[in-house]
Amino acid sequence: MEKYNTTKVLNKGQYSKVKLAEDINTGEEYAIKTIRVPDDDSEYEDGMQVVDLVGDDYDSDDEQDDDDESSDEENAGQSTGLVVLVEENTSKSNYMEHIRTKSEGSEQTVTEEASDPKLNHLMTLINKLKKQQTESLSERIQHEVMALNKIKNIDHPDSQYLIGVKEVIEDSIKQKIYIVFEYAKGGDLLSFIENQNKLSEDVAKRYFVQIVRGLSLLHNSGICHRDLKPENILLYENTIKITDFGFCGMFKKNNPMFNSLCGTENYVAPEVLEQEAEYDGIKSDVWSLGCILFTMASGLFAFDDESHPKLIKSIIDVDYKMPNHFSPLLKDLLSSVLVKDPNQRLSLDDILTHGWVVKE
């Protein structure tokens, strides 16, 4: 790491930190993510039961920073399970700020009682799954490093829609992993939406198509993201960069089936919540993609409620309302993606030929 001069901290997480860095020889800027590898998962045991710890202070005996300046240009703090977002009453003027606050994590388990016995049982199951089935921290670090090494070697035009990885360095002595990323100066998609309040359909379409192409390349490379959301999509000039692979799932032989409970709740598919069987990671990614499109075009969540049980129920029942300003073609696309039955959802190839996408 001697060839990089690090400057400010861009973001911190429970077990990781991202710094802006400059190549001493070329002057080129990068974002370097440092992951502190634990001896075991016991030091994060509480975190595995808490749903998300993005934004919690990173601490290390041998690495402290006086510079506490941070931003969200690389969402470095990986979550430790399902992100439970409990909505509060808020006006539209500060709605996107509230989305960011919530998606940075909430240290609470699901304790709210549901009036529907079936839903109450589901809430109990989700709590149990968070404690017992969520992948261990060491597994997720391993998966992220494997995915990034694979992404680094992808030679395809659509790789421009994935965060560029220059190198991955493992330091067994310091028990740290350093990942050198391209520096996406435009920040994340959520910030962009927040600044615009909402995106026009033309602008949303431009970024949406890029996300679809990047996601398709991931899937064709044997990787499911499993935590797609605007915060995990960066911008560089007019190009999106899918990032944050802490929850990614690797698969082989066209068998993208998983059983771990992960993702961010307002973007997570019903089958992931219900856990009645293994779920198809490709099809659950498509659901998240639909939720992102809804948020881009409206500045709002597709699924949202003050009551957590009601939020869960709205996702499982696919109960959401289209804004009046959505065009008929956009409504048709969303209603073909946000479908309860994963097998009835449009594929990524189908999405790229949908009328809303191809219309000039």
Overview features:
two-stranded parallel ribbon, five-stranded antiparallel sheet, ATP-binding, alpha+beta, protein serine/threonine kinase activity, 360 residues
List the helices and strands and how they pair.
Layout lengths: L3 E9 L3 E8 L5 E8 L8 H5 L32 E2 L11 H9 L13 H16 L4 H16 L12 E7 L4 E7 L6 H8 L4 H20 L2 E2 L8 E4 L2 E4 L6 E2 L6 E2 L4 E2 L5 H5 L4 E2 H18 L9 H9 L11 H10 L10 H5 L2 H4 L2
Parallel strand pairs: 4-12
Antiparallel strand pairs: 1-2, 2-3, 3-6, 5-6, 7-10, 8-9, 11-13
Shape: globular
Integer-rounded radius of gyration: 20 Å
The secondary structure category is alpha+beta
* Total helical segments: 12
The largest beta-sheet arranges its strands as: 1-2-3-6-5
Percent in helix = 25-40%
User: How far is the first residue's CA from the last residue's CA?
Assistant: 48 Å
Global mean pLDDT: 79
Return the string of H and E elements. EEEHEHHHEEHHEEEEEEHEHHHHH
Largest sheet: 5 strands, antiparallel
Number of strands: 13
| Low-confidence runs | 42-111
Give the strand content.
15-25%
Description:
One of its GO terms (biological process) is intracellular signal transduction. Residues 54-75 have a biased composition (Acidic residues). By secondary structure, the chain is an alpha+beta fold. It is built from twelve helices and 13 strands. The strands form five sheets. Strands 1-2-3-6-5 form a five-stranded antiparallel beta sheet, with helices on one face. A hairpin with a 5-residue loop joins strand 2 (16-23) and strand 3. Helix 2 (95-103) packs antiparallel against helix 5. The longest helix has 20 residues, at 201-220. The chain is globular and about 55 Å long. Mean pLDDT is 79; it is low at 42-111.
